[in-house]
Specification:
Blueprint (H helix, E strand, L loop, with lengths): L2 H13 L2 H8 L3 H15 L4 E4 L2 E4 L1 H24 L7 E7 L4 H15 L3 E7 L13 E6 L7 E8 L1 E5 L1 H7 L13 E3 L5 E5 L2 E5 L5 E2 L3 H9 L4 E5 H10 L3 E3 L8 E7 L7 H14 L7 E2 L2
Parallel strand pairs: 3-4, 3-5, 8-11, 8-12
Antiparallel strand pairs: 1-2, 5-14, 6-14, 6-15, 7-12, 7-13, 9-10
């Protein structure tokens, strides 16, 4: 039985359809359909009931899915055992933020691929919140403050940001001096997030309001440069504009607490070795001692 056909079946079962599985696997729908057809022919049973909205597992498919997933996992483990020490194989599917991902994370993933020529790395760059379990990712790399979740997080480094606005905005609207004054200002946000600030040894949380929202830090920076409001942005994308005077730090007596860079993975007792290797590379890249693995909170 072809192991790739088994992998394809598991992806279709988990993704809920041929199209979604093809996107996950990075292949055409026709290839997925052919592999499924060959597997069903070999088994002599129908595994999936296809319709216009996707595909649903048949009774036989439900029974076969877990066995197929275990077989794929066992094969991956066996291949790693017989490979040279430290070699990785199989597929690593990673969700990475579009802001910072191509500049700060892509080089790490490229180096991982260079060091492990039998490993297939599939990276999705997006600033939207990715459901790594539903969408079939091995892990995700996230910047900022983590939300409550049953996922497992590993801290790999610090992440700093600040409030900024353009001189034109400050001239027209003034500059807030404390968190309470933010309610009178236009905030540039990703959605409905809360902003945190340090006040001595206390953390103050504010839920700002604003009419301009975007799911990408670079887009929010463009809005700040245009004078549309105040944005909480990472230092890495604002430093150049602050140095030139195009953006001005705001409310510096109440700095945001340091955020973090995290590797997020589905809950399980032991992470896959490929996820552990990526995590170790990111810790080395960011050059800071990381915190122990812990549940996201």
């Amino acid at each position: 039985m072809d192991i790739e056909e088994l992998r394809t079946f598991v992806e279709v079962a988990d993704a809920g359809g041929v199209s979604s599985a093809a996107r996950r696997l990075g292949v055409s729908k026709s290839i997925v359909s052919r592999q499924l057809a060959r597997l069903e022919t070999e088994l002599g049973v129908q595994l999936l009931a296809r319709n216009t909205r996707g595909a649903a597992l048949t009774e036989a498919g439900v029974l076969f899915r877990d066995h197929a997933a275990r077989a794929c996992a066992e094969i991956d483990t066996a291949r790693e055992l017989i490979l040279p020490d430290g070699e990785l194989c199989g597929r690593l599917r990673v969700a990475v933020p579009l802001t910072f991902g191509p500049t700060h994370l892509a080089p790490v993933l490229a180096e991982m691929a260079r060091q492990h020529p039998q490993l297939h790395i599939h990276t999705v760059y997006s600033d939207r919140f990715v459901d790594i379990i539903t969408e079939g990712f091995d892990c995700a790399i996230r910047f900022g403050y983590l939300q409550d979740s049953n996922l497992i997080a590993r801290h790999v480094g610090p992440f700093y940001g600040k409030l900024v606005a353009s001189p034109d905005y400050i001239k027209a609207r003034g500059s807030p001096e404390n968190p309470d004054e933010l309610s009178a200002h236009e905030a540039l946000m990703q959605g409905t997030e809360a902003w945190q600030f340090t006040d001595g040894d206390k953390i103050v949380t504010v839920r700002p309001q604003g009419r301009f929202k975007a799911d990408n830090g670079t887009a929010l920076m463009a809005a700040a440069l245009a004078g549309l409001g105040i944005a909480w942005l990472p230092d890495g994308i604002t430093d150049e504009h602050v140095a030139s005077g195009a953006l001005v730090p705001v409310m510096t007596r109440y700095p945001p607490p340091p955020a973090g860079v995290y590797v997020i993975r589905p809950p399980s007792q032991h992470p896959a070795r490929k996820v552990r290797v990526l995590t170790e590379m990111l810790v080395a890249c960011f050059g800071k001692a990381s915190l122990p693995a812990e549940a996201v909170r």
